[in-house]
Design a protein that fits this description.
The chain has 13 helices and 16 strands. By secondary structure, the protein is an alpha/beta fold.
């Protein structure tokens, strides 16, 4: 089984060659300039490096509307999360920006990093955006709150990146063109992608190693970037996974690489988005657990699994896991399909309970978390995002 083709058929590369780069850098100094906040810089990098293939830029109006209403790009390619660049009316006036113009995109320090060829400038309905993507307009939902903070206009068009946008924790960063080479070098024909924004507990390890029994390799791909309050800090997640991989995995069967990207907490739609991204990295399979990319009680526990039935043409195989827990009677991690014992024997992998234990300075028991991992997490006085 060969590694899957990138989503849309080819791996996008919107980084300029040395020859074109020099001319683009000169051009950039003469053009209107727009500073991008950190999460937009991550999206820009993900477009340029092919992580968001087949996107070659931020969504134009026809693609944006099709994604909202049909969960597909205008050419019918599956796509569920709008990748957009927002500006205010005042910013547009300041830039004197019109469709057909070229814009210089800058990082927070004002350094020129990319050109954008503005093909589309359009308004949109924020309430409609929230309802379609997040299935709610409740501003207590972190993704919805973010939508209402966006500017009134969206810019669509192709980008050309000439300045490297160095991701945080860059020593853990691999591009899709690199992971695909790495998987082939290791002889992996089947690869399961694992999405995470948490430190690993025994339940995560159970899911990963269960998948490893029928694929050649596991690709652990933590999301690094802006998260909601109460999520684990990026540096804690990476230190914990380094320890787990060092002590409990065969080196030839597991790879960890970061995904610098903002979490949207869009539940079912985001699960599809995460699967597409891992397909671009070269994964043949994608692990989807209970409440994938969810927050609060906005989505039913298995909504992120059920949505995959809408996408028979996705090109990556979803691997679904139901509830799992540690059974004192079985003396191992099990799930409800294989364990006959009652609730009194079960220890759940509750993220809330694990957080509460860590905040109290307690070490989670070995039935929940590897002792080496727990000790790493305990190095931080507060391992959580404020």
């Amino acid at each position: 089984m060969p590694l899957p083709k990138p989503h849309g058929g080819r791996l996008v590369n919107r980084t300029l060659s040395c020859e074109r780069r020099e001319a683009a850098e000169k051009e950039a100094k003469e053009l209107p300039r727009l500073k991008l906040r950190e999460e937009l810089l991550s999206d820009l990098r993900n477009i340029a490096h092919g992580i968001y293939s087949p996107l070659e830029g931020f969504l134009c109006q026809d693609d944006f509307e099709n994604v909202l209403f049909e969960k597909r790009l205008a050419d019918d390619t599956p796509w569920t999360i709008p990748i957009i660049l927002d500006i205010s009316h005042e910013e547009r006036e300041r830039l004197e920006l019109q469709e057909g113009d070229t814009l210089t995109l800058c990082d927070g320090s004002g350094r020129e990093i990319a050109l954008m060829h503005v093909e589309s400038i359009y308004s949109y309905n924020k309430e409609e955006f929230a309802e379609k993507v997040f299935l709610t307009t409740d501003k207590a939902h972190p993704g919805v709150a973010k939508v209402y903070e966006l500017g009134e206009l969206l810019l669509g068009g192709e980008i050309e990146m000439f300045g490297e946008v160095e991701p945080p924790f860059s020593r853990f960063y691999l591009r899709p063109v690199e992971t695909r080479v790495l998987f082939k070098e290791r002889g992996w024909r089947t690869v399961a992608g694992f999405q995470t924004r948490n430190v690993p507990h025994l339940g995560h390890e159970y899911v990963q190693k269960t998948a490893l029994t029928f694929v050649d390799g596991i690709f652990i791909n933590p999301v690094i970037g802006k998260k909601k309050s109460g999520d684990f800090k990026d540096e804690v997640i990476l230190a914990a996974y380094e320890t787990l991989l060092c002590n409990y995995y065969l080196k030839e069967n597991a790879v960890m690489s970061i995904l610098p990207m903002e979490m949207r907490y869009a539940g079912p739609r985001e699960a599809i988005h995460h699967a597409i991204i891992r397909k671009n990295f070269g994964c043949t399979h994608f692990i989807v657990g209970r409440d994938h990319a969810g927050v609060g009680s906005y989505y039913s526990p298995y909504a992120a699994q059920e949505i995959f039935s809408e996408f028979p043409d996705l090109g990556i195989v979803p691997v679904f896991f139901k509830s799992f827990f540690y059974c004192r009677k079985c003396m191992t991690v099990v799930n409800e399909k294989i364990c006959p014992h009652g609730e009194e024997f079960r220890i759940s992998f509750s993220g809330t309970k694990i957080r509460e234990m860590l905040l109290r300075g307690e070490v989670p028991p070995p039935e929940i978390m590897r002792p080496e991992v727990a000790e790493v997490v305990k190095r931080w006085e507060n391992p959580f995002v404020s």
